[in-house]
Amino acid sequence: MKPEQTSKTTRTPQTDASDFVIGRHAAAETLKTEGAKRVNKIFLQEGMKADALYDLQKLAKNLRIPVQLAPKNKLDTLSDRGNHQGVVLAISPFAYATIDDLFAKAEEKKQPPFFLMLDNIEDPHNLGSIMRTADAVGVHGIIIPKHRAVGLTSTVAKTSTGAIEHIPVVRTTNLVNTAKELKQRGMWLFGTDMAGTDYRKWNAKGAITIVIGNEGKGISPLLKKEMDEIVTIPMIGHVQSLNASVASALLLYRAFDVKQVAGELS
């Protein structure tokens, strides 16, 4: 058994300077959630006739958010040439959660804490995709490092297709210290590597944190020492590694299956 909780560390929420959400689906999800409170203005591409844009205008009117029609080249500039689909939201920066927020969310749902820790994920598309899967399987929150890793940007928001509004993200200055705290608070940490327990035989019941390493280097050595168990995804092909978002999805759904059978998820 893990020791009882010994401390509760509260971290001050931080923010990134990113201030745009692009794309119709991501915009609609933002306007339908608490994220709508951060929206300052909606830019819609002039001349477009699309039901999706009409629906966004209706949402904006109900929320009393100003809408500005703008030429395509302005939206191209605001979105840094991204695929904005004719809509860009100007928003206040994304806020980060605290470790206590994640435990509180699990307690509110009356479920064992189920977290995901990402060790220096650098690709915003990977982070966005991981957030989508984490939301789908009921993860209570994601933990990322403050330095040498992607944060909550507009690209992440778009790739997550709205999951960014539902998954709390903690940004910490030291993942090793955070891992130690999670263990003190009763969690089991599971990392990934080439050698370890076959993920198909992995017992993911209870309070767990899955740790996914950097796209190229994997989990850093000091963080790996904090793992209670290493889990591996068998491969027989020539390429002996998986994209971080794919590896995350496999492990998250294995945990999801185990927890559903155990009655831990509702």
Automatic annotation (TrEMBL):
Gene Ontology cellular-component annotations: cytosol
Keywords linked to the UniProt accession: Methyltransferase, Transferase
UniProt-listed GO biological process terms: methylation; RNA processing
Domain of life the protein comes from: Bacteria
Molecular function per GO: RNA binding; RNA methyltransferase activity
InterPro entries in the record: Alpha/beta_knot_MTases, Ribosomal_eL30-like_sf, rRNA_MeTrfase_TrmH, SpoU_MeTrfase, SpoU_subst-bd, tRNA_m1G_MTases_N
Annotated PANTHER family: 23S RRNA (GUANOSINE-2'-O-)-METHYLTRANSFERASE RLMB (PTHR46429)
Family classification: Belongs to the class IV-like SAM-binding methyltransferase superfamily. RNA methyltransferase TrmH family.
Name of the protein: 23S rRNA (Guanosine(2251)-2'-O)-methyltransferase RlmB
Organism for this UniProt entry: Loigolactobacillus backii
Taxonomic lineage from the root: Bacteria, Bacillati, Bacillota, Bacilli, Lactobacillales
